[in-house]
Amino acid sequence: MKTINLCSVGAGSWVQEGHLPAIRELETVRLVAVADVDERRLKLFQEKFGVRAYRDYSEMLARESPDAVLVAVPHTLHARVASDVLNAGAHVYVEKPMATTVEDALTLADLARKKARILMVGHEHRFGQGTLIARKFLEGGRLGKIYYARAEYVRRRGLPAGPTFVSKELARGGALFDIGSHVIDLAMFLSDFPIPVKIKGVTYQNFSDRPEMFSNYPKTQRSTRTEVEDTALGMVTFANGMTMFVEASWASYIKADRRHVAVMGDRGGVDLEGNDLSFMTTLDGEFLNSQPIQGQQFLYLDIWRRFSEAVASGLDVAPFPGTTAEQGALELMIMDAIYRSAQRGAEVEVEVPSSLSKDLGWGDSKPRAEVRG
Question: What is the pLDDT of residue 224?
């Protein structure tokens, strides 16, 4: 298997603590360079990991000609950087959300298709064993007709202290983009990507000046005031009649933090509390609640193994179960509609282009004739 050369645009803590431990364990991928505008952070990253460093990511792309690029920059820069990477001929792993506007998301998905390059959106929870078992139950028809889903990610105390996630200029959205996007992605993955048609949303900004609600309390040091929502709620109606409730909150008076996704059908239901899966159905007229046995797992190791092998094999679509560009764009349309509805104070309609809805999955993923290297 060919080893791919990887570059990173962004040298932040999530790259170092989430991605790099996995990447450094794999023989199928090698990090060769990093770009970041923060000179001090860049220097420390270079010293720690022994890779070439650039202040300008465009220069890095030109000099390194990487096979793939990890994009881990503030939300509002995702689309621009990912577009530049695709135009440079490389594959992309972009952190969520893939863009902050519907127009940018659709343009990016179209560009990835035209360039025949993988664009995979960073929703790591899809790779959890519980999630993949639940997906098997869906594909096996054990849930029957899906009619309802709940997508909840709620923290007791967890407002980000730095500007990256709380500045409108850098993030555009708050809790919905940051953590709500993950559970929306899981609910869509486990209901086979229904097409949204109407959405009612509300947002709240209750805790901007409450230091006890920040993630680093009691040593809260904020460089900017929170300019985005700390709570977002949405009710989504889909073309097939399914309904989904969305709840995302950085801070709320609840007993404990909760990441919860439930998908319910007329023959069975799956319930993911974190990565713990429960499957409910009836057997011989009796209600059955089962919990599949799961082993230990390092999510990012599985993610980067599948991604790097897909790149090396010449695939042009994110490998299963990764979030494809089209899936990421569809989910961005849901979040955007929640924001639009909250701003207007009324339900809004969602118009999904037919070009997007007809090709959301992995079925057409195929090797290209040549692999650039």
Answer: 59
Residue at 20: amino acid letter: L
Closest to 98 in 3D by CA, of 177, 168, 194: 177
> What is the residue-averaged pLDDT of the chain?
93
Report the C-alpha gap between 199 and 340 in whole angstroms.
9
Contact call for residues 156 and 253 (beta carbons, < 8 A): yes
Q: What number of other Cβ atoms are within 10 A of residue 119's Cβ? A: 30
- CA 142 → CA 265, 281, 291, distances in Å? 9, 8, 15
Give the residue from 269, 258, 257, 248 showing the smallest Cα distance to 149. Answer: 269
Q: Answer positive or negative: Cα dihedral of 126, 102, 99, 305.
A: positive
- What does pTM read for this prediction? 0.95
CA distance 67 to 160: 33
Distance between CA 248 and CA 154 in Å, rounded? 5
Q: Which residues contact 280 (CB under 8 A, 6 or more apart)?
A: 268, 269, 270, 271, 287, 288, 289, 290
Cα-based distances in Å from 107 to 16, 75, 111, 235, 358: 30, 16, 6, 26, 16
CA distance 57 to 203: 35
Residue 102 and residue 336: Cα distance in Å, rounded? 7
Q: How many residues does the chain have?
A: 373
267-294 mean pLDDT: 94
| Nearest-angstrom CA–CA distance, 337 and 341 | 6
